[in-house]
Amino acid sequence: MKNKSVNRRDFLRLSATAGAGAFILPNTAAAAIQKTTATTNSTSGFPVRTLGRTGIQVPIISMGVMRADNPNVVRAAYNSGITFFDTAHGYQNGRNEEMLGNFFKGKPRDSFRIATKVKFDQPLKDNFETEFADMFDISLKRLQMDYVDILYAHDMKSPEIVKDGRVIEALKKLKAEGKIRHAGFSMHNNNAAQIDAAIEAGIYDVILLSYNFKLEKLKELDEAIARGAEAGIGFVAMKTMTGGSEDAEGKTQINGQACLRWVWSNEHIATAIPGFTSFDLLEDCLAAAQNPQLTPNDKEYLAQLCGQELLYCQQCGKCQDQCPENLPIPDIMRAYMYAYGYKNAGLSKETLAELNLAKDVCKKCDTCKVNCISGFDVAGKIAAITPVMQVSDVFLS
Description:
Layout: H1 8-18, E1 38-40, E2 47-50, E3 57-59, E4 63-64, H2 71-79, E5 84-86, H3 95-104, E6 113-119, H4 128-143, E7 148-154, H5 159-162, H6 165-176, E8 180-187, H7 192-201, E9 206-210, H8 218-230, E10 234-238, H9 256-264, E11 269-272, H10 279-290, H11 296-306, H12 318-322, H13 329-340, H14 345-353, H15 378-385
Parallel strand pairs: 4-5, 5-6, 6-7, 7-8, 8-9, 9-10, 10-11
Antiparallel strand pairs: 1-2, 2-3
Helix pairs in contact: 1-2, 3-4, 4-6, 7-8, 9-10, 9-11, 13-14, 13-15
């Protein structure tokens, strides 16, 4: 990231003086709100927005914990005023939830919010209900908590699965049992129809979605987000930095502050969850949150990148129709982004392992028939990333 506005001495002061009890959150309100409202936390200096009908007040900057494995970074985020932490059942094979559970043990439960996710096969298997509930119970044990503030059905693929009665009933059951306060889902393909399906279903309080300046169908998505906000759904943004690099090879780090300020310019996005893993990256995110207005320089910088091939895949799925092998190319491109943008080959391997790819992937085609709308060299990226499946975990970070 670039354009730092908080120096290291200021950052350490912020982290040290905030105190674990300084950010007790207000009680949530049950009534739906018509649009996201914003105030400023007088202690941290971050703007605070309301997360839809949940009534939860969240700083515009939160923490995506997925890649973090250092509890000291979590501590610095918490002490700096970040109160919302996002994890998932599968992150780091469960170690991510365990780290959060150990860190938050003994801290006031109303001083932080936790969201986790449970992923399941789509279409649903016969034992979906049992498997989903069992996985979530494991997550609660790892977190050492009786409930989570938000449970997301992880990586929903279509409007049909969003409205599936079995998924809805499973979430309703967990709510009735008091194990979750609010239900939601995450999606990578940014299908506006999925937001409309969520409005129709009525069970989803929060949607976690990819949101950044590179999106192809931004107008359509923004209109759907506005409809969802009107219905009381809260929106949380991920993948805000388009893979962390401003070039397709992952060699030049993107200006994350400009990316975040662009995201916050949409009043319906309550918070963003950048996946910082170091104190320097956290420092940049804090600096952006304290100066959240999109500047003319930001706009010029982002406009220059709009026509370039970056690491972020639009997840539109059109490539799969072109591929004779019907490979899950969007997921493979996401694995490529994790390795070359996030510099996390271990996460890349975990993502590829879920796809059950053949060892001879792409060997049957002499030339690739896929023409990516974003200009991705699909064959080149597949050839560059799939060998990681054969690398021992010992050599991956």
